[in-house]
Design brief:
The chain folds into two domains: 69 residues, no CATH class; 223 residues, Rhomboid-like (Rhomboid-like fold), CATH 1.20.1540.10. By secondary structure, the protein is an all-alpha fold. Helix 9 runs parallel beside helix 12 and helix 12 packs antiparallel against helix 13. It has a two-stranded antiparallel ribbon with strand order 1-2. The radius of gyration is 22 Å and the shape is globular. A hairpin with a 4-residue loop joins strand 1 and strand 2. The chain has 14 helices and two strands; from the N terminus they run αββααααααααααααα. The relative contact order is 0.12.
Amino acid sequence: MSTTDEFRRNSDNFCYRHPDRQSFVLCQRCLRTVCSDCRTPAPVGVICPECMAQQRATETPAQKKAQRRWARSAPATVVASGRPVATLTIIAITGLFYVIGLIPGIGGIVGNALAFYPPYLVPQFGPIEPWRLFTAALVHSGFFHIGLNMLALWFLGRNLEPLLGRGRFVVLYLLGALGGSVAVALLAPTTIVVGASGAIFALFGALLVIGRHIGADIRVIAILIGINFIWPFVVAFISSLGTGDFFGALADVGVSWQAHLGGLVVGAVVGLIYARTRLLRQRPVQIGLLIALTVALVALLAIPAVVYY
């Protein structure tokens, strides 16, 4: 991500111990920005090295004795590394489900059980299966489908995860998957969809908003989003030149632009929430807004149940 002069001059956007490392995580005590190599997990948030040293210096002999006793009976606290662990874990899990999908006799069953189909959320069609709202992100239609999605996840995740922290990154990914499924239910209620595209576009949306908030140059991100979103329409337009059936050609492209749109919008909203509730004292507000967003997305699922079925 290239940056503007305003971004580079603002030290709050970089780790106070490593000025060349961008971060979005604050020490819960001094509220200075710290990178993944400089933060120690705490019961709430993280602590920078200097605050950790001050905490240890002010411990009473009894506290130090209890700390030593606890250290002998419990595993040592591991300082978060700069590796995008959550990103790699999501890629590994998704890859595992793809391999399972290749097993004859089993793959089809797993794929049918995890793919998203809006009528499965409507009671009059039988027992509702809400897990499909998320599990569709684990199923892909082919090697190139999963390959492109996981490649995008890797490039986006290795930048966003250290910036946000693992927990917030996972929440963003899951809400993006949910937003993509909700958009499909609203805009294409009879379509079966698979793939992590909604979650991937959520990462795009969050990166766009957060980058704008911290003063980064987001033009390249905006161009990438535009190309990825418009591409299915371009292909459909070219294919329809001979038949004149644009919408039929768009359906034949096999790309769910509805999931892309839903993930992008939800990711942008989540990115805005993260950007506006960065301080530790705003953590309850951040959690409350994320819960409200989730409830709003679930509530939107009542619309297709009433309008279409």
